[in-house]
Amino acid sequence: MERQIINKKKRVFSLEPNKNPSAVFTRKYTRHLVPALKKLNMNKNSSQTNQQTVKHEVDMALALSAQEFAWSRFLLQKLSSSKNPTTTTSSSSNRIRILERSGKEGGDEDGEIEKKLKELQKLLPGGEEMSVEEMLSEIGNYIKCLELQTIALKSIVQETT
Amino acid sequence: MSGRRSRSRQSSGTSRITEDQINDLIIKLQQLLPELRESRRSDKVSAARVLQETCNYIRNLHREVDDLSERLSELLANTDTAQAALIRSLLTQ
Question: Region (Disordered): which ranges (chain A) (predicted)?
Fold first, then answer.
């Protein structure tokens, strides 16, 4: 996010709200999803609009609206190969290991953290294939995009009620 | 038995996290998670707790998205009203 900071004491906020990343994402998301849903609706005669198809479009819109992030690529991959569900046995799964903290008590705690990190890795699309640093930076914007997606979906649902 | 390490994968296989990286992650997650932001009884929340809350939060978000998709698909099943409303919402972008 770029903010114009002038030499004065006042801080100036961007005059271009369209560049606000949250707004950009939400706009992209609805622009992807709504037409896709319309298309689904129009093809209703041939195949039934079941929940899985809608979910597919929902996820697809998410991945397409956040292409600047690594996790979206993994999500796209997963979605496009969703016709043939292959269980990805990640042979190159990055194992998370924590440096031994010398002389510190609570070896259990380290194991606990490691366990939680692995869990987190599974929740993030492509988390298991990313490097650890990448995952650490991606997890933040993934959460943010999920939140924005939820808000967008709620407003779409309210529109059609 | 000691001293022999058989690694099938090189560098990208194992990555070690330093304590600093963990701390950075915890701080960032703490700012993102609503529950942890508001209820700060003590300064330090255990790292494992933050990670647990993060996992829970992501799972909740996933479930919420699933619920909303379900509602959306039910709405789409009612053709006319849904179509009209969708077109309406598209036009009011």
Answer: 81-111
Residue B60 CB contacts under 8 Å (≥ 6 apart), including other chains: none
Identify the structural domains of chain B with CATH numbers, from first to last: 2-92 (4.10.280.10)
Report chain A's mean pLDDT, rounded to a whole number. Answer: 74
Q: pTM of this prediction?
A: 0.69
Give pLDDT tens digits for B46-93. Answer: 778 888 888 999 999 999 999 998 888 887 776 556 666 777 777 766
Can you tell me whether residue A158 is helix, strand or coil?
helix
Backbone angles phi, psi at A148, to 5 degrees: -65, -35
Q: How far apart are the first and last CA of chain A?
A: 35
- B 34-53 residues with CB < 8 A to A: 46-48, 51-52
Q: What is the DSSP letter of B45?
A: P
- Indicate if the pLDDT at residue A37 is higher than 50: yes
Q: Which residues does chain A have within 8 Å of residue B13's beta carbon, measured at their own beta carbons?
A: 92, 94-95
pLDDT of residue B36: 59
CB A111 within 8 A of CB A56: no
Backbone angles phi, psi at A4, to 5 degrees: -85, 115
